[in-house]
Each structure stands twice: as C-alpha cells, then as structure tokens.
Amino acid sequence: MLHRTPLYDTHVAMGGRMVEFAGYELPVQYPTGPTAEHHAVRTASGLFDIDHMGQFELGGPDADACLQKLQVWDIEQMGEGDAHYSVLCYADGTVVDDIFLYKLHGRWLIIVNASNRAKDWEWIERHLQGFDAALIERSDELAMLALQGPKAEQILQKLTAYPLGTVATRTAVETEIGGMTVIAGRTGYTGEDGFELYVPVDGVVAFWNLLLDAGKDDGLLACGLAARDSLRFEACMPLYGHELSPHINPLEARLGWTVSWTKNFIGRDALLKVKLEKPARILVGLEMVDKAVPREHYDIAVNGQVVGHVTSGMKSPTLDKFLAMAMVPAEYSALGTRLDVIVRGQPKQAVVVKRPFYKPQYK
Amino acid sequence: MASYKLDKSVKYAKSHEWVRLEDGIAVVGVSDYAQDSLSDVVYVDLPEVGDTVTAGEQAATVESVKAAEDVNAPISGEVIEVNGALEDTPEIVNDRPYAAWFFKVKPTSSLDAELADLMSAEEYDDFVDNLDE
Predict the structure, then answer these.
(1) Could you give all domains of chain B from N- to C-terminal order, each with its CATH number?
(2) Any chain A CB within 8 A of the CB of B42?
(3) Which terminus of chain A is more exposed, N or C, with fewer CB under 10 A?
C-alpha cells in the first residue's frame, strides 16, 4: 500500500500526474509540464509537496553529543535557528543517508529522505544507546512544503508580518504564516533562494491554496517531482540512490565540505584514510559533445573500456545542454577530460566540466 | 480519463506511431497519446536517409524528460527524408504531434498488408481507452 500525503486529493484535482516515489504517491508533474515548472522556479517561484521527507526530532540532555557522533557536520558551530546539510555515515565511511538539520528551541529537527526513513530511524535509535536522548517521529504532525525561486520571499511575505528579509540562508524561524504556526527554513533543493515550510498537517491543504493564491500574479506554479529532480541536478545536489549510496562515501561524492575532521563521528577513521590516500573514484560533471541524452546507469568508457557510470543525467532545461553527473576513476576527473557515454550501445563523446552546472542563487 | 487528440486522416500502430500516406509515401510520427505519456520531449534520434526500416521494428528514438522510447516504423521501406526541425525544436512533438513528423518511408510491395494491420482513428481511440483501464 502506497502512502499518500495530505495533499493527495489536491494534486489529483489540479491534474497532477501521480506516480510512485519512495513508497509515496506524488505528482511527477502538473498539466503545465516539467519544463515549464522548472523555468518557473528559476525565474519566479514554484511550490512543491515534499511531505514524503521524514521529520525526526532529537532532544534530551545528551542530544548534542549523540548527534555529533551520528553525522559528519560539527553542530557546535550551529546556534538557535541555524540549519545545515549533513551526512550519516556507516563505519566504513559510506552513506546511510544525507540529511538536513535544524536547531530549534534547543532541540534538533532531522530531515531525512523518504526512501531511507525506516532505515535512518533504526540507525539513529540504535546509536542512542548510552545517551540520555530521545528520538521522536514528527512526520505525522508536520507537513512539509517547499516554496522556491527568486520570488519566494515576496510571495511568502504576503502571508506573514514576520520580516522574512531578516531570515538568512540556512536559518529558520518559527512564526505565524497564513494564520498558522509554521517553521520556515531558508533552504531548498533547487539551487534557488526559497523556503522549506513545516506546516501543521491539518492545515496544509488550506496553506497550499493560500500560497498558490498569494503567488498567482508572480508566476508561481505548483511543481512535481520531475522539476524537483532537474532543478537539483543543475545545482549538482546529490540524490540518495544516485550520487550517494551504501557503496559511495561523501568524499567520492564531493561532499568533503560537510565533513568536520576536528570532531569524532561514525565513519571518521575510514573517511580520513580515503582523504589521505585520495579517493580512487570521484563524481564529475559531464557535458555531451555529441548530441545524446545521458541517463542514469549508462556506462562511461575510455577507449572502449568501461570505467564508470552515469549517476544522473538529462537535458538541462536552464542551460539547454545535455549534462550528466558520473562516477569515474580519479585519473579521468580533470576538467577537459574526454570520455564516452555509452548510449544504446553507441559511444557518445562527453567532456568533464565544472560543477555545479548552475550556480545556486542564494540571498 | 484524459482525452487525446486524434487525427482522422492517419492510421495508428499499437506502439502509438501514426502514418499518413502522401503521394504514395508513408509519413510517420507519434500520436498525441504517445507525446502526452512521454511528457516533455527533449531529443529525437532519427534514422539516416537511405536506411531500410521494417514494419514493427525500431527506426528512431524519442527522448523525453522521463525516458528514452523506441519509435517503430509502421511501414517497411527506405527512409527518404527525416524531419531536421526535430533536432533543434523537439518540443514540437508535444505541441503539434500530428504535424511533427519524424521520417518519410518509400514503401515496399507489402504496403497494403502493413496498412491493414494498422488501426483507424476510431479503433485507436478504443485501443487507448482500454490501455487506461
């Protein structure tokens, strides 16, 4: 039985094309189409139902100490209202999940991928042993939306007296928006400015409609999973199961910037070894020289020998180029390196280019 | 169910291509149902002029934001022209599916038999209806 978010009926009524994603029925697109939805987020704003993401709360006297051990980012750097991206690692340095952390009211809100929700819960619970800390499931109380794009702030501002211009990137406030108590974190998964919004479950349908109405003259569109994927792809943000997995470590995935070496955490020894020896393979950005659509799992070859694979690829709507992220041996990772992507049995030439393809436009 | 545009002047294959006969030449494209299922088309890989294509076998590939799908030749023969406009503006497949032809085939002597295997607009409408059950 697939899960549905509280907005399921709303999506269907709006003509959303419902598909299965990580055990949820979610709209992959609305009648506007993924390309139009993508452009709306780059130029105006887009609204996403992302309630499939898991929301855990960690609290208690030892919550900080426990969280330091569980994930790679140094949370001592985080004050009240701060938010940060991080990674949970296994002892061998590979990735349990990538997560987003909020520090609110002295407690931690941990946002996890839908596909990893049960696994993460079990993993965190297991490592709580010996700590005076408690993990609480908040997913059933909080619905999660994302309002993204250069006009996100001005649209959201219509619904609240709180001066949103004072909310810095990667911080959050809990305030009244649209008559509800909402947590608004200035972050997202699109490479644009915007907010992720935590709304009481029983108010989320009304809140969704309020937002669409508030943004109707600003070019706001409801957006599906396809646009979410193409937007994050252009900004080279990893997607678990593609750029991250139990077989990939954060250094291979170029997430070394999230790793705080000055503290201890699960996987540190293994990652330090990788850091010192340099990763043998690494994630690169590719641009097709020959015209072809590179897709996930396609082989990467050099002189007919398969050396790696595409982790995500598509025609970039913003840049109008055929682009891919690919895991390749470090020796083929230098900018300008020519590689072949095997498309339906045919080698198609590609070149290693700078990441991200699209530079995030944060405030 | 959603309704799809039909062109009554063409015949349809079960794999959702259409074929229109123009002065004895078979002009091939994909149906409105096909483009809608594909979602936004981003690239079309066309055959070469001079290629021989066989009815029911792959002749081209259409790539959308979702996936790469085969486009079969509904009619056997020699490819005599391909639609270069699809190279730079593949989105016309979404916008005008019955105008955005892919390739033209000079049929063989099996044309009549192959045409008989295709569906009229009415038959195709029923066929698509049953797919959506």
Answers:
(1) 11-109+118-131 (2.40.50.100)
(2) yes
(3) N
> Is A226 in Cβ contact with B39 (below 8 Å)?
yes
Residue position matching structure tokens 């998964």 = A189
CA distance B62 to B16: 12
CA angle, B33 then B35 then B37, to 5° = 65
Please tell me the distance from the alpha carbon of residue A170 to that of residue A185, in angstroms, as a whole number: 7
> What CA–CA distances, in Å, run from A347 to A339, A350, A359, B6?
9, 9, 29, 38
- Cα separation values, A245 from A121, A134, A175, Å: 17, 27, 36
Per-residue pLDDT of A12-53, as tens digits, reads 999 999 999 999 999 999 999 999 999 999 999 999 999 999
Looking only at the bridges linking them, the beta strands covering B68-73 and B77-82 are unpaired
The model's pLDDT over A104-162, given as tens digits with 9 standing for 90+, comes to 998 999 999 999 999 999 999 999 999 999 999 999 999 999 999 999 999 999 999 99
Q: Which residues of A touch B39 (CB under 8 A)?
A: 17, 28-29, 33-34, 226
- Residue to mutate among B33, B36, B38, B40, with most A CBs inside 10 A, is B40
End-to-end alpha carbon distance in chain A: 41
Burial (CB < 10 A; 0-12, 13-18, 19+), residue A288, is buried
ipTM beyond 0.85?
yes
Amino acid at position A336, single letter? G
Q: How far, in Å, are A89, B38, B44, B73, B90 from residue B60 at the CA level?
A: 44, 15, 7, 8, 13
Domains defined along chain A, listed by start? 3-51+140-234 (3.30.1360.120), 54-136 (3.30.70.1400), 280-353 (2.40.30.110)
- Asked if the Cβ–Cβ distance from B65 to A35 is below 8 Å, we say yes
* From B39, B45, B68, residue closest to A295, measured CB to CB: B68
Q: Is the pTM of this model over 0.80?
A: yes
